[in-house]
Every structure is written in structure tokens, then in C-alpha cells.
# Entry
Amino acid sequence: MTRTTSVEAGSLRRKDPRTAQGGFVSANVKSLFIGASMLAIGLALAFTAGDVETPIFDLDKVGVVLAVLGGIELLITGGMMVLPSKSKKLERD
# Structure
């Protein structure tokens, strides 16, 4: 007798209690990588795409916006990693 079950995509991965989604990297580290990549891409666009003309928007201004948003994300995520939240302090006590 065989039993068939439906398996969701990604459900075969082992859940790691140290991470948020059960992947290999925690949510804060993912956010740091995203912020750093946004900052790098934004700076690259801001410094190199000044002569490129597009009909809708300037790529150097898009680069500045991406760099600012990436920097903000890095600051907020770094602050969340360095400074523990009040709820975690209450759980420890």
C-alpha cells in the first residue's frame, strides 16, 4: 500500500531555529546583504550613469535614491542587530 502526499516547495528543507524562515541565513543578514547591494548598485549608477539619457528618468538620480535607501536599510538593520529589542530583554529576565 502506497501513500501519496503533496509536498510544498521548500518544505523538505530542515528548519533551523536560529533563522527566521528556516533557511541558511537569518533575516537580518539577508537584509544587510540587500542593503549593501542596493548601496553598491546605487553608487555605481550615481557615478557612472550621468551621460546616459532615458526618456522617463535620469539614471544618476535613480542611483542616488537607491544608495540612500540602501544606506538607510543598512543603518536600521545594523541597529536592530546591535541593540536588542525590549521584548527580548523581557524574555531573558
